[in-house]
Design brief:
carbohydrate derivative binding, alpha/beta, 12 helices, aminotransferase, 10 strands, glutamine amidotransferase, glutamine-fructose-6-phosphate transaminase (isomerizing) activity, globular, binds fructose -6-phosphate
């Protein structure tokens, strides 16, 4: 049941604090599996992260975190698996909410046949993808009914950040605060609704981010395309001047995602867009970008920034879809689980 919420998507966004908390405690109770996964990742020459759609964005975020630590990580869109040849010295991290996505299954089979070690992160116990893996890890978001991934994405981010903290040898207990950070962001629902409703009247939008913000810009744009049917594109903010800015004219909406790093560079990108009279928005953590409209979130520990930003990008998409009269739970042309290639 929707428990009083207008749609499952909205209910599931609001379930994110609980989903994230259950995910972390589940991983702590499965700590032997987590340790096995970490051993495999640390001992391999390359780490190949494969996933599709929203799960790919979670995988990209994890890849950036590890790349910054000097790991050799290659994020691969599952349906593009043929561009990489793996071997016994590689480890594979497959990320899939459903645990059944065809493209991920096909890629896994190929990589497994090459002798690579497989770790999976799925939201369904003993999912098809989990059964193909040497180590099975789980998010514990609970069933997700809305076609758009919301609480499962936030849970993937939590699980991957947990792994990353252990790999770094850091204390992971800061993640216990993720649920409070999400709850505080959910207090900005009214502000997110206003931005979503403004975007719903547009026909194009850019989502820009730098560094760790980029996967969240990509996720924000995907959500908008998926349920609002508005053409939204994500770019690395610095790339926007290498072509995409040509489209920008008066009132073209540009949404900046700002996790609180590389803020000076992002502020320069805002100025470039303002100079073209774009309508600028920002979802910012701890430091403002001074856009036309900005939601400023605060976190004590910037490692928790993803949990501040994610509910907002999801709510913006949700309210823009509702404003257009679309059913966000059942977007046209899409299925919850894509079991065909
Ligand atoms: C976006 C969305 C899809 C899925 C993709 C992968 O909201 O739901 O992009 O993320 O189809 O699905 P899983 O994670 O089940 O492999």
């Amino acid at each position: 049941s929707k428990e009083g919420y207008a749609h499952y998507m909205l209910k599931e966004i609001h379930e994110s604090p609980r989903a994230v908390d259950d995910t972390i405690s589940g991983l702590i109770s499965d700590i032997e599996d987590v340790k096995n996964a970490i051993k495999i990742l640390e001992e391999s020459k390359r780490i190949i992260v494969i996933a599709a759609g929203t799960s790919y964005h979670a995988g990209l975020y994890f890849s950036l975190l590890l790349q910054r630590e000097g790991f050799n990580v290659i994020p691969v869109i599952a349906s593009e698996y043929y561009n990489i040849k793996t071997n016994q010295e590689d480890s594979i991290l497959a990320i899939s909410q459903s645990g059944e996505t065809y493209d991920v299954m096909i890629a896994l089979k190929e990589f497994k046949a090459n002798g690579s070690k497989i770790i999976s992160l799925t939201n369904v116990i003993d999912s098809a993808i989990a059964r193909q893996s040497d180590v099975k890890l789980y998010t514990r978001a609970g069933p997700e009914i809305g076609v758009a991934a919301t609480k499962t994405f936030t849970s993937q981010i939590a699980a991957l950040q947990f792994l990353y903290s252990l790999i770094k040898g850091d204390d992971y207990t800061y993640l216990n605060k993720a649920k409070d950070v999400i709850r505080r962001s959910l207090d900005f629902e009214g502000e997110a609704k206003l931005i979503g409703e403004e975007l719903s009247a547009k026909s194009n939008a850019y989502y820009l981010g730098r560094g760790l913000s980029l996967p969240f810009a990509m996720e924000g744009a995907l959500k908008i395309k998926e349920i609002t049917y508005l053409h939204a594109e994500a770019y690395a903010a610095g790339e926007s001047k290498h072509g995409p800015i040509a489209l920008v004219e008066k009132d073209f909406p540009v949404v900046f995602i700002n996790l609180g790093e590389l803020v000076g560079e992002l502020q320069n990108n805002v100025q470039e867009m303002k100079a073209r009279k774009a309508k600028t928005y920002a979802i910012s953590v701890n430091e403002k970008l001074n856009t036309d409209k900005e939601i400023l979130l605060t976190v004590e520990d910037e490692r928790l920034s993803p949990f501040a930003v994610t509910p907002i990008i999801q709510l913006i998409a949700y309210y823009s879809a509702v404003k257009r009269g679309n059913d966000p739970d059942k977007p046209r042309n899409l299925a919850k689980t894509v079991t065909v290639g």
